[in-house]
Amino acid sequence: MTASTVFEAFAGSKGFEANFDGLVGPTHHYGGHSFGNVASTGNAKLVANPREAALQGLAKMKALAEMGYKQGVLPPQERPATWLIRDLGYTGSDQEMIAAVGNTNPGYLSAMCSASSMWVANAATVSPSGDTNDGRVHFTVANLQNKFHRAIEHRQTERTLKVIFADPQYFNVHAALPMLAALGDEGAANHTRFCRDYGVQGVEFFVYGKQHWGGTVEPQRFPARHTLEASQAVARLHGLRDEYTVFAQQNPAVIDAGVFHNDVIAVGNQNVLFCHEQAFLNSQQVYAELNRKFGAGFNLIEVPTSAVSVADAVKSYLFNSQLLAKANGKQRLLVPEECCNTPDVWAYLQHLVQDNQAIDELLVFDLKQSMQNGGGPACLRLRVALTEAEAAAVNPAIWMNGALYARLSDWVKRHYRDRLAEGDLVDPQLLIEVRTALDELTQILNLGAIYPFQRHGSDE
């Protein structure tokens, strides 16, 4: 199917979904910082290839754009986080501070060099204008307070989103919730929206790991990062209607099995929820509420444990996939190559596309560099449903097309290393390389001076 035919299928509707993928940063390495993320901790200390990682992500963006989907690019954050090193009492030049941290506590420096902002499913929670009281698209930046290397992202995320979605007539970007345990917010990785049309009222589905006040069932091995209280606060900030909002608790047992976010065990789009049977606590009640609030036509595809174990779901990232609407009213499922290499998962997927009435096509992508660090196709993208008028108000330089793909690919090849280990992070040349690359990127994407090094070193 050509790009024009897919886009024409959505052009007559009241809206469409855009995917904004995170561009992998130059300091992509395997630090193993994310306790509870089996792939992240299991591959710690391996040698990474930042250049390959970025090119793999760009290839996915280009492919979706060529299929006719609206595809945007979100830039990486500046790393190392030198402003934070200075805030922690280190002195001297930036290179001297990096050397001081790296030579005494390399794990500390590794966390402050993490390229985890590429997983923009954790950047924010997004509510389209069809759902909000004021008719604007609302973003609430995720605080990610559970993990040190991610909790330092929110100020830059807010600046970046406010530059890309700048028009207050159409967009409202909220700052992150307060950095409190009771308000742990992991963003869109724990949020799904169901709708008949992207531009009209939908049902917003918030999944949380625990209830800070009054909750009784929690995981015992790994932390529940997202609270009910955070989801409720986001729903209030976005002006959502109770009759179109559902809150559900993630099954604590699957969190303990390595399902650190809901998007590792479930994915949804339009009228389809594709999930594992162990995804939710009290799942039958959850399904009943979704059916009631969505109305006729809600389509549940529940994968039984007998077909795919939770361990295989985590290993393959079957559910950390993208459901993409097609012109024929069905969905295509974009999965990582790891699904092909997991026999039970691949057998299930073959059966799914042959027999299911909602999903009839598979797309397989090589995202090994991201996968080894614990993030698959769904982690790499933030979903934003837009009307044509709203899309026209987005910074136009970030929309993926052939010319931007060529320019960004060339940029990556010129600026990124093809090998990066934890020990390389103290190299004083790396900081120069990163800043040179990001300075050029802000010009390519017309972002202005968004980075701390462009703002006299301040992250405020």
Can you describe what's shown?
The chain has about 450 residues and is α/β, with parallel strands linked by helices. It has one domain (about 5-80, about 115-455): 5-stranded Propeller (L-arginine/glycine Amidinotransferase, Chain A). The chain is about 35% helix and about 15% strand. It has 17 helices and 15 strands. The chain has a 3-stranded mixed sheet with strand order 2-1-15. A 3-stranded mixed sheet has the order 3-4-5, covered by helices on one side. β6 (about 190-195) and β7 (about 205-210) form a beta hairpin. The longest helix has 17 residues, at about 50-65. The protein starts with a helix and ends in a 16-residue tail after the last helix.
- CATH-derived architecture: 5-stranded Propeller
What proportion strand?
A: 15-25%
Please count the beta strands (DSSP E, at least 2 residues each). 15
**CATH-assigned fold name:** L-arginine/glycine Amidinotransferase, Chain A
Using only CA atoms, what is the Rg?
21 Å
Distance between the termini: 46 Å
Features:
three-stranded mixed sheet; 17 helices; globular; L-arginine/glycine Amidinotransferase, Chain A; 17% strand; disordered N terminus; 460 residues; alpha/beta
Ordered list of secondary-structure elements with their pairings:
Elements: H1 3-11, E1 16-22, H2 38-42, H3 50-66, E2 70-74, H4 82-87, H5 94-104, H6 106-111, E3 124-127, E4 137-141, H7 148-151, H8 154-164, E5 171-174, E6 191-194, E7 203-208, H9 228-237, E8 245-249, H10 252-256, E9 266-269, E10 272-276, H11 283-294, E11 299-303, H12 310-316, E12 322-325, E13 331-336, H13 343-355, E14 359-365, H14 368-371, E15 381-386, H15 388-392, H16 402-415, H17 428-444
Parallel strand pairs: 1-2, 4-5, 7-8, 10-11, 13-14
Antiparallel strand pairs: 1-15, 3-4, 6-7, 9-10, 12-13
Helix pairs in contact: 3-16, 16-17
